[in-house]
DNA sequence: CGAATTTGACCCGCGC
DNA sequence: GCGCGGGTCAAATTCG
C-alpha cells in the first residue's frame, strides 16, 4: 500500500532522472508546468522512456485504495529530489570542467618547467646516484645542497636513473668491473677471446686470472688514471628473518667468506637481472644481534630494474645522496660535529679509521675506505615490513637511522628506545610485497627467494619465538621527524627519491605513458590498493627451505649435522661461542651464531 | 640436465 | 717482503 506506492514513486523518480538527463531540459519546464498530479503522468508520457512509462504507469494504476493526495505528495517530493539531483549534477559537471581546465593548465606549466629544468639541472640526477660525489662536485658544487623534492616533473627524466637504482654513473673504474655500466665486462672483451682454450689446469687458471687482472686494469686505465675512486656503498641494516633482504633484484651467490670478527659468513651476490650487471651485494648477519641482517650494495645496475627492486634501489640511492650531501658538508677534514636536528641526532664525523657506528666489532677492510652509508632499519621488526618502509613515503615520517660510516656518519636517529612498530603505522602506500612481485613482475622469480628461515626453524623448533614486537612510535618522534624532513634538505632528498620511486613504480605498473600528474595521484591510489591487496614478503613466499644459505643455513646445517641435536630449544646451542656474551632478547638461535667459519 | 649454490684456492691491497 | 684478510673465481656439488 503505502510502501508499494512509495517505492514506485522513488523508483520512478530515479529512473526519470536518469532518462531525463538524456532527454534534455525541456522536461524541466514541462514538469513545472504540470497541474494535477494524476495528469502529470499522462502528460509526461510522450517524453518518458519506456521504463518510465511502465513505472509511472505502475504508480498510476496503483490500487485505488491509495489516496490520490498521497500519490501527489510523493510524486512532488520525488520531483523535488530530481531537481536537487539535477542541480548537483550540474555542479559536478562544473567541477569537472574546472578541474579539467586546471589540469590542462598545470600540464602546460609542467611542460614549460620541465623544459627549463632539463636545461638547468641536468646534473642533479647525480643526487640519486651512488658514487663519489666529489667528481660531480667539481663540476657543480652548489647542486649539493639543492633538494630535489620539489621536482616531480623530473620523473620522466629520472625514471631511468631511478630504475637503475644504485647508479654510480661516474664511478669510472673498479675492481669488480664496475666501470661504466654499458661497457662490456672483461668476459666479453676481445682479449678474452684471445685467451687460451680451457682445459689446462693450474697454469691456465693463473693465466686466465692474470688476463682478467689485465683486463680489469686496462679497463680501469681506460677511465681513470692511477687511483680509481672507491665505490660508494650503501649498507642496509635491518631486522630480517630471511636469508637476505628481498630487494626485488635477482642475485646469484658467487662466494662466501668468513670475515674476521664475525663468525657468520659473509655471502657475496651479484646481480643477475642482466648478465653483465656489475652490482654486487654482501650479506652478513650482525655479530651482536643475528636478527639483524647487514646488506651492503655496491655498483651500478646497467639495466632497468624490476619494479620490485626500484624501491630499495631508490632508497639506497637516497641514502647515498644523503651521504654525499653530508660528506660535502663535512668534507673539510677529520673533524666531527654533532647537532641536534629537531630532536633527531644528527651526527657527522669524518674519521676514516673509526669503526662503523652501527657495525660494532666488524672489521674494517680496505674496501671500507670507500664511502659507505648505513641505513639502519633495525627498528623495523622484520623484513616483512622493510618493503613498506622502502616503498611508503609516509613511512619516512618515521625516519630510520641513517648513518654513514668511515668518512661520514649521518645519524638521523631518534633514540634507540623509539623503535617503530610498523604494524601500527598506516602503510597506506605500501605495495612492495611478494605477491605483487609475482603478479606484476614479468620476469621470473628471483632465484634466491628469501625464505623465512625463521619459519623454517620454527618448524624444527616451535619454541623459538619471533623477535619481540617493538613499541609504537611516540607522537613526538613523528613530530620531530616531520620537522627534520621539512628542515633538512637531505631528508627531503631522500623523501623525494622515495616518492619518485613510488611514482615511478606506479607508472611502470600502470600506464607508462601516463602523465606525471596522473602518476603522482592516480597511481598512488593504485598503490594504495595494491598495498591493501597484497600481503608482505616472506610469509607468502613459496617454500624454498631447501635453499637456505648464509649464516642461518650454514648454522642449521652444521648444527643439525654435527650436534647430536636434542629436540627442543637447545638444538641450536653450540657448546661454545666466541661471542657467547651476546645479549639475547629472544630465544632465536641466531644469537648462537655460526662459529663454523 | 641445466641452473644455482657451495667451497677451496687464488689474487690483491694493506699494514707491519 | 711477508702475512693477513677481503674479494673473486671456478670446479664440484646440489637442486629442481
From TrEMBL:
The chain's coiled-coil residues are 68-116
For this UniProt record, give its keywords in alphabetical order, as a comma-separated list: Coiled coil, DNA-binding, Nucleus, Transcription, Transcription regulation
Annotated Low complexity bias: 173-194
Q: GO MF terms on file?
A: DNA-binding transcription factor activity; sequence-specific DNA binding
Tell me which Pfam families the record gives.
WRKY
Q: Name one GO cellular component term.
A: nucleus
Chain ranges of the WRKY domain? 240-306
Give the compositionally biased regions (Polar residues).
578-597
Tell me the compartments it is located in.
Answer: Nucleus
Q: Quick one: where's region Disordered? A: 1-42, 171-209, 575-597
List the protein's name. Answer: WRKY family transcription factor
